[in-house]
Specification:
- By secondary structure, the chain is α/β, with parallel strands linked by helices.
- The protein has helices at about 25-35, 50-65, 85-95, 100-105, 110-120, 125-130, 150-155, 160-170, 200-205, 215-230, 235-245, 250-270, 285-290, 290-300, 300-305; strands spanning about 40-45, 75-80, 135-145, 180-185, 205-210, 230-235, 280.
- Strands 2-3-4-1-5 form a 5-stranded parallel sheet, with helices on both faces. Strands 6-7 form a two-stranded parallel ribbon.
């Protein structure tokens, strides 16, 4: 369990499922999609919560066994393409949370894994064939901020970008191998997918457009985390927050940041016992920190970072 109820401007982590509220129905929808296809594209606007939905929602649900066909034993290889997509893929595969226990002990593990990936579109499938996982264990390959591959295709090595996408698509077609591929991508890059063979077809087959939270879901995201830590949010403050933030999805990072700030200042004021049982956040606290307008003006660049 996390040591604070609100994540602030950063994405939620997998160990923060206890304070990840408001997305329960969306997690169920992701599980249904993944049960139908081993390749899933999760798309949405910047700041809408795509990464958090996967890391604190889908992955813990998988590890709890909610994808019954696949079981509850999951390894996770997480990466961003950046400016070295194949190298980053090799690093992700060799992480302790992924294939590291079976493949990472060799002194040349990284070089051998990278060489396999560079051999062709079947390279990732061959790595999995050569690296048996324990029985009923699946590998989830998460490519976060997949849109980085489009910039790399344009300004870096086009052939390597093509090879990277081909590796993902080929591996996801192998139902005989224990691998599922999930990418997160900003929706304004959807049109760019046509530059890669097979990617539009894969996304047409299995795509999830991240919904905005409705008012009740946003209420849960405000009240739920505090209650986990024994605190509470004054009903008047909840309504004020909901009204001030509106229903735009890019307000979620600001809301998390604002709640984290309110909670932190309550800690510093000494109004808590162990785990913050005595913390009660009020409209007066909200007005003291300047509300949404102040949060937006002070943290505009950070607030719309990818979550």
């Amino acid at each position: 369990m996390t040591d604070a109820p609100y994540a602030g401007l950063r994405p939620f982590h997998a160990d923060e499922i206890d304070v990840f509220f408001g997305r329960e129905s969306h997690i169920d929808q992701l599980l249904e999609k993944l049960d139908q296809s081993r390749f899933l594209g999760v798309v949405g606007t910047s700041g809408c919560g795509k990464s958090s939905l996967i890391k604190a929602g889908l992955i813990p649900a998988l590890q709890t066994g909610f994808l019954a066909r696949a079981g509850a034993r999951w390894r996770v290889a997480e990466m961003r393409p950046g400016d070295r997509p194949l190298e980053r893929l090799a690093d992700a595969l060799l992480a302790d949370s992924a294939l590291g226990p079976e493949r990472g002990g060799h002194p040349l593990a990284n070089a051998l894994t990278l060489a396999s990936l560079r051999r062709g579109p079947l390279g990732l499938a061959e790595i999995l064939t050569d690296t048996p996982l324990p029985e009923r264990t699946q590998l989830l390959l998460l490519v976060d901020q997949f849109e980085e591959i489009f910039r790399y295709h344009q300004h870096g090595d086009r052939d390597q970008a093509d090879a990277f996408v081909a590796l993902l698509l080929q591996a996801a077609t192998r139902t005989d191998l224990p691998i599922y591929v999930v990418i997160t991508m900003r929706s304004d890059f959807l049109g760019d997918c046509t530059i890669f063979d097979g990617l539009p077809e894969a996304l047409n087959e299995s795509q999830y457009l991240t919904p905005r939270l409705d008012r009740e879901q946003r209420r849960a995201a405000i009240v739920g985390p505090a209650s986990v830590f024994g605190g509470k949010v004054e009903p008047r403050l909840v309504n004020r927050l909901l009204n001030d933030m509106g229903d735009e999805p890019d307000q979620l990072p600001l809301m998390q940041h604002l709640m984290m700030r309110l909670w932190t200042e309550a800690h510093h004021a000494g109004t808590k016992t162990q785990h913050g049982q005595h913390i009660a956040l009020t409209v007066a606290d909200y007005e003291t920190v300047g509300g949404f307008a102040n949060a937006l003006s002070q943290h505009a660049d950070e607030a719309f970072a990818e979550l």
